[in-house]
Amino acid sequence: AAIKKYQFDIQVKNVSRLCHAKPIVTVNGMFPGPTVYIREGDRVLINVTNHAKYNMSIHWHGLKQFRNGWADGPAYITQCPIKTGHSYVYDFNVTGQRGTLWWHAHISWLRATVYGAIVIMPKQGTPFPFPQPHQETNIILGEWWNNDVEELVKQGNKLGLPPNASDAHTINGKPGPLFPCYEKHTYAMEVEQGKTYLLRIINAALNDELFFAIAGHNMMVVEVDAVYTKPFSTNAILIAPGQTTNVLVQATQAPGRYFMAARPFMDALLPIDNKTATAILQYKGVPTTVLPILPQLPVPDDTDFALSYNAKLRSLNSPQFPANVPLKVDRHLFYTIGLGINPCPTCINGTQLIASLNNISFEMPQIGLLQAHFFNIKGVFRTDFPDKPLTPFNYTGAPLTANLAANIGTRVSKITYNSTVELVLQDTNLLTVESHPFHLHGYNFFVVGTGIGNFDPKEDPAKFNLVDPPERNTVGVPTGGWTAIRFRANNPGVWFMHCHLELHTSWGLKTAFVVEDGKGADQTRNVKEHFPF
Ligand code: C2O
């Protein structure tokens, strides 16, 4: 194992896309930011120095940070933000994980431009459990706004409405040839005929689940969220914000130029799409004057594709990489996901859109929950988050209008150390049904079941997959449906859980789990060095 050191300078840089130039917040002036290369077992030290006018914090999405929540990164959950002119060293060990993850700003909407890949190679001498690729490349999907995103968020808050949607999707920061001024802003990947390539695909978009496909080429899915899967071949993938997917692509077509494309899956919204990002799979030697071929993507509201694609995802569950699914459950949690409307005296219309879990909309504290927990600072959060909704109703049927307004509070759940937890996330029709990608910090979980309509506690558990369910850190709760996840609470700390649609996170669709092992040993290192202020 080695020690890997990185310097992340948060700095503003002028960047132009779609013929619009604007200053954006970056790491080291790069957009997307630098890739963090690690080998399983390494210790990583990343010194983040903030030269921008915004408060900053960085999250290492999907890294478990075992007993090391101080390096997890979500602002006001595990740390106070890094102020302008200040630095903070994220110090963590990467054990028991290998694959593709990513890092992003975890404060306000700054992750719109502050993100990059994390590539964890297996231990020296340990091959991938799939054919060795000739080469590999990162494919990071994102969104681009022509206007300043933080300004749009401020305007949205005043109106109590969503900020304007993005103007384009991007592949490795570039929208591609379907947009103006694309010449310098098209990503191309060169391939040699007959060779196999590993694509590490990351959805860094703020608010869109995306379909991704490559014209003429099937993809072999081999890993999601840095966990190996049973390989399967598909002509398109579905990837939610926060998720990663590794695929193998064989360059076996006639030498030519083929588009890769990403566009939103939006089954609950008006399926209008004018934001498709494209990049080019370029066979070596083919002149760039040859017109590329566009792939067939599922239509924006193709729910059937989404359901059948997710059903194909299975853990590899080999002797070397067993799926240790908790078979017994110590604690059953049932959280409803609701969108609603609350009064808002400071908003122009007097109301604002809001989002809640069990009808509680999470209010951000003034200091990190982890500090408050560790130093026993009272009055920062409450541990009475309800295990189930206080008023059960027909979740996906007629909305319970009394629940349209949510309670506001910094309320979390205490989980017994090393107990097994089953959490059912249930979408509701309070304002409208919608798909929600849920992310849990500090853990992977097993997605043991999912379905459309209301979860049935009598019938549905009998159908759970407890053998080889996918193991992930982010899962899409289907539109008007539910998802059941299981995990063992063996990582002490304070761990954030939230919808990875930035819009919904900022509306309060989040909570946290407090896990302590009774020894006060929530982390192994000296605490004082871990405060960025
Ligand atoms: Cu990728 Cu809490 O986030």
TrEMBL record:
The keyword Glycoprotein applies. One of its GO terms (cellular component) is apoplast. InterPro entries: Cu-oxidase-like_N, Cu-oxidase_2nd, Cu-oxidase_C, Cu-oxidase_fam, Cu_oxidase_CS, Cu_oxidase_Cu_BS, Cupredoxin, CuRO_1_LCC. It is an enzyme of class 1 (oxidoreductase). CDD domains: CuRO_1_LCC_plant, CuRO_2_LCC_plant, CuRO_3_LCC_plant. Its cofactor is Cu cation. GO terms for biological process: lignin catabolic process. The keyword Repeat applies. It catalyses: 4 hydroquinone + O2 = 4 benzosemiquinone + 2 H2O. One of its GO terms (molecular function) is hydroquinone:oxygen oxidoreductase activity. Binds 4 Cu cations per monomer. Its EC number is 1.10.3.2. Transmembrane segments: none annotated. It comes from the Eukaryota. Lignin degradation and detoxification of lignin-derived products. Belongs to the multicopper oxidase family. NCBIfam families: laccase. This is Laccase. It comes from Rubroshorea leprosula.
